[in-house]
Automatic annotation (TrEMBL):
Protein name (record): FAD binding domain protein
Family: Belongs to the oxygen-dependent FAD-linked oxidoreductase family.
Cofactor list: FAD
Keyword Nucleus: no
Keywords: FAD, Flavoprotein, Oxidoreductase
Domain FAD-binding PCMH-type: 33-204
Length: 457
């Protein structure tokens, strides 16, 4: 029996329905890409990953990887490539002595925290319940309370990889340290396939509470300037966001300021939210102070905000700390093209003021902005995508860079890393994958190859 027959693989020449399901069935964005892998391996164990790479080497195909399928640009779906889908490759194993949890890339933040919560532990993974940890951590990981708990990739202690030539390696600060450096922030250009993450957990706070303040959209500047003014020095266990969105109660879109705090006692949780309650400006439509919540409830809310079976276009920017942030973001927050779309400002201070560890992730500012345009029919594609493009073009002069996770390099290229870190990352990519076997950054016409991205504003 040939090596290919040992694999759970669907070839492009197989039945159309089976191939299409394998190609895009797990792609979250229903704005499907017109790219067609030569085959899709539904890996169930590490040997399948190694075998897929070996076949790619033999037949001179590229290799692409899918962990959660949540990439807005569907980076995993590439022409002339064998797509390794890790959806059926599952592992979660906790070492209760060290607090290190070993996970496969397709493990989601919700899955890992369902297990960890039983042991009184937490991992600050992605907010959406169905985001795979693979792409999330490679991009840096803007997880729970990132503004002060730090980036999720800072909790990565080691990784196991399969390289572009089929080697199986462990990477940490002492072994294959350049790959370990790159894994924390390289995004979809990482020059190997991660099969396991070894993650440091943290104690699970026993009490969560949240406050929300809803303003009419013509109060956007008032709302954002208020929450921006308190964010930098706010309680370190509290997440702070400002969202432009539609809610059922109102015909027009509104502006929601939300705070979620994680504390060891009910008293501490309420006290942490009191500063916002005491300083909220007048003019709000509704408020809900210090409501009891849980991580599971927050995952549910995030899932509802990112519905399945829809078409998406997303983009983002780190806004210059010296900009008039409210003026820069006002159009994006107040001209949403559909009732399911939303715009987000995420408070990043004080982590954005701290020196980062030596790793690929090296771009941040106090102000993270992202727009998520969500619609249902192809007839609205041009309108919704054009709005995002127009908003981002106007914002470009005030941006210092971009987060990989909400990017589409086919549409826009900018700065993703510090100058030195970007150059180092491209050198590491060429060292470990000189032929560009592993599909890297999907730019316009998929041309970047081993050269990677320019990393210029």
């Amino acid at each position: 029996m040939s090596q290919q027959n040992l694999l759970p693989i669907t070839w492009k020449t197989d039945a159309v329905e089976a191939y299409e399901h394998a190609r895009v069935g797990r792609v979250f964005n229903h704005r499907r890409p017109h790219r067609y892998p030569v085959g899709v391996v539904n890996a169930e164990r590490e040997e399948h990953i190694v075998q897929a790479v070996q076949i790619a080497l033999q037949k001179n195909f590229r290799v692409s990887v899918r962990s959660g399928g949540h990439s807005w640009a569907a980076w995993s779906v590439r022409d002339n490539a064998i797509l390794i889908d890790l959806g059926n490759y599952k592992q979660i194993e906790l070492n209760e002595t060290t607090g290190i949890v070993t996970v496969s890339p397709s493990t989601t933040g919700k899955m890992i925290n369902d297990l960890l919560s039983e042991k009184g532990l937490l991992f600050p993974g992605g907010h959406c319940p169905d985001v795979g940890l693979g792409g999330f951590l490679l991009q840096g990981g803007m997880g729970w309370v990132c503004r002060s708990w730090g980036w999720a990739c800072q909790y990565v202690k080691a990784i196991d990889v399969v390289t572009a030539d089929g080697q199986q390696l462990k990477c940490n600060e002492k072994e294959n340290e350049d790959l370990f450096w790159a894994a924390r922030g390289a995004g979809p250009g990482f020059p190997a396939i991660i099969t396991r993450f070894y993650l440091q957990t943290k104690p699970l706070p026993k009490h969560m509470r949240s406050s929300t303040y809803i303003f009419p959209k013509n109060h956007f500047k008032t709302a954002l300037n208020w929450v921006k003014s308190i964010a930098e020095t706010y309680d370190e266990d509290t997440e702070i966001v400002c969202v432009g969105l539609y809610i059922p109660d109102y015909e027009e879109s509104v502006v929601l300021v939300g705070l979620v705090t994680f504390k060891s006692s009910e008293h501490e949780a309420i006290a942490a939210l009191q500063e916002a309650e005491d300083s909220v400006p007048s003019g709000y439509l509704q408020k809900d102070f210090a409501r009891s919540t849980t991580l599971q409830q927050e995952y549910m809310h995030q899932g509802l905000a990112n519905p399945e079976g829809h078409r998406y276009c997303a983009d983002n920017a780190y806004i210059d700390n010296d900009a008039d942030v409210a003026s820069v973001l006002e159009e994006a927050f107040t001209t949403l093209p559909s009732r399911k779309s939303f715009a987000l400002w995420f408070a990043m201070a004080p982590v954005s003021r701290r020196p980062l560890p030596d790793m690929a992730l090296s771009m941040q500012s106090d102000h993270y902005f992202a727009i998520y345009t969500i619609w249902e029919t192809a007839s609205d594609d041009d309108r919704c995508q054009s709005l995002v493009s127009n908003v981002m073009n106007k914002m470009a002069p005030f941006s210092v860079g971009q987060y990989l996770g909400d990017s589409d390099f086919q549409v826009r290229n900018t700065k993703y890393w510090g100058e030195d870190q970007g150059k180092k990352l491209m050198r590491i990519r060429k060292k470990w994958d000189p032929e560009g076997r592993i599909c890297g950054y999907l730019d316009n016409r998929d041309q970047s190859g081993v050269e990677g991205l320019r990393n210029k504003l």
